[in-house]
Amino acid sequence: MAFTQTGTAQPFPLTDNSREASLLRLEQLAHLMDSAFVIPGLNRRIGLDSVMGLVPVIGDVAGMLLSSYIVYEARRLGVPKWLLARMALNVAFDGVVGSVPLAGDIFDAAFKANRRNVRLLRRHLERHGGVRPNEIEGTAVRLD
Fold first, then answer.
1. Entry's InterPro entries (predicted)?
2. What is the pTM of this model?
């Protein structure tokens, strides 16, 4: 953990290129893009990707560019080509279907391609990349 001059803790500085720091930044980006806001009354989470998709063409292109950054980072982290292809297909599918007016925006709010891609990346790095697991597998036993 790094500390700033004011004494506040910063979990991973933006210049930290470790796998865990990169994964944390990508998870934060995916959260912002796919589930940062709650629709009042519906209790349904949407993200910046859905909001940007309301602007025809420009919003969809901007959303695809930001989503492509996750695929770029996955390539930088050394994931296999088959996983990169799967992640790119998620982005392309989200972009193509999301470009349909209104129905695409509803699909965009439900599909959440960025969270899917970060989940795929995390699972791969936990198995092969030396990243500590996010969750501990097993059963818990209460000791009284």
1. DUF4112
2. 0.79
